[in-house]
Amino acid sequence: MTVDKNYERKRKLVNSFGKAIVFISALLLIIITVSLFLFVTSKGLSTFIKDGISIKEFLFSTTWNPDREVPAVGSLQFIIGSILVSAFAIMISAPLGVSSAIFMVEIEKKLGQKILQPAIEIFVGIPSVVYGWVGLTVLVPFISKHFGGLGFSLLAGILVLTIMTLPTITSVSTDAIRSLPVEIREASYALGATRWQTIRHVVIPAAKSGILTAIILGLARAFGEALAVQMVIGNRPVIPKSFLEPMSTITSIITMDMANTAMGSVWNDALWSLALLLLIISFTFIIIIKLVGRRGMYK
Amino acid sequence: MKSKLYDKIATIYFYAVAVFLILFLVSLISYILYQGRTKLNIDFLTSPPKFMEAGGGIGPQLFNSLELLIITLIISVPIGLGAGIYMAEYAKPGLLTELIRLSVETLSSMPSIVVGLFGLLVFVTMTGWGYSLIAGALALTVLNLPVMTRVSEDSIRSVPNSLREASYALGSTKWQTIVKVVVPAAMPGIITGIILTAGRIFGEAAALLYTAGMSSPALNFSNLNPSSPTSPLNIFRPAETLAVYIWKVNSEGLAPDARQIADGAAAVLLLMVLIFNILARWLGSTLYKRMTGEK
Hints:
Chain A is mainly α. Chain A has helices spanning 5-49, 55-60, 76-107, 109-125, 128-147, 154-178, 182-190, 195-206, 208-224, 227-232, 250-257, 266-295; strands spanning 64-65, 72-73. By secondary structure, chain B is mainly alpha-helical.
């Protein structure tokens, strides 16, 4: 049998060429991430370098007068706004999300997989402007009518984000709970524990790190969500004193003001600094998830 | 005895949560579709929007959304698939692989407004393209790449090793094995993934506000000159999408029927996402059945 040398050479060439192509594709992901960090960082730092505004003023002052002659870009109210709206949303969606995950894995496997799982996937798929629109046309008037105020409020933001973070928390914690070995449940039942006792004392503790990851991912989604929140919170640059008051978040002020400002103005630079802050926060969440995952692996 | 009672209460609670969520979803979907029902007609879907007067449609926006989706997929699917192949078949544990993985995770949880600003800086300003379809597509590519990579990697990893070994035993090279055996076997998962991410791309707005822009010049569908601003083939024209339009109508809607328009647009957007979802499910299971020879 003779080997066609030309064919063999071509085959080897294609083999290395293919490897090179997929390697470059993967490298591209690093390149995009690095350049995203570099560009946003260099723009975001100009508030402090070029415009001479101190980081302390930016982070800890609430005076937001970016269009005055002597611009003030204190952004504490946006930072606190983002924290409030995300934290309260997670406080509601985390218990609901984890409960529905438990329902799908521990209580009603078939029904869960046939009905609840697809439902959760549709929740994920609904675009954020649609959530925002429903929030604006249903939730805002409802709050205004039954609780008073304008309706555009912290409360409206919290409720919209609750719905939007719920599917993230549910699907990630479902995966975590599903991946637990069945033996630990059997061992618990063998000791005479009820299903609830097994869930509470065995399943949840064993899936702890996965559930924590789910909650942090939900928090990251809440923090980064822009339009749905912006549509219902009223966009007043103040720290809300009650659940019914209008407010702003980091994302909402960027969304609202970016189009009105000229590149290079202090106002515009401050928005980039907020974007940089958002980038740092979102990266911090990822690092925390990595640490949680490394420490809490169930073996 | 007490523990049995608690167990019952807990069971009731879990059922209540599940029933509540499903009822909530059903009422949310029916509300959106009901509100938009009068607008679900050909005229609304194809005619251009009107300013200051009632009766405008969403034709150009709907078309832009679809065009943007297709261009984004054309760019991001090959790269994402390539990166997925690398991660599943070639990557060795080490610093580089860790970095790629970290990049994927960082990008996939990146707030889309930040990606939009990055797009504004790089694809709109630095390239000099201005607000354009291509700038929007590139921003969406940044959002979609990590998802595509992960979907491809997972699907490729789940292909059983026996298939690879059989291919090597026939004397194939690694690349031949990947192209002819592994990727085809991973196809059902990859296609399901593509369709699901398509739904996400279709509904994305925050990343597009400052890349594809918030205006859409009238389109002339008989104009096929790619450099003409009214041509649907011109990828350098500003291209407001359906999702962006809903946001814009709410914040600065000038038409007297702005509310109805947004209701209609939201219903269309939701319907498209539902169709993508059902399509992904159906296609996924059909392809899987065909692959495994199960009729």
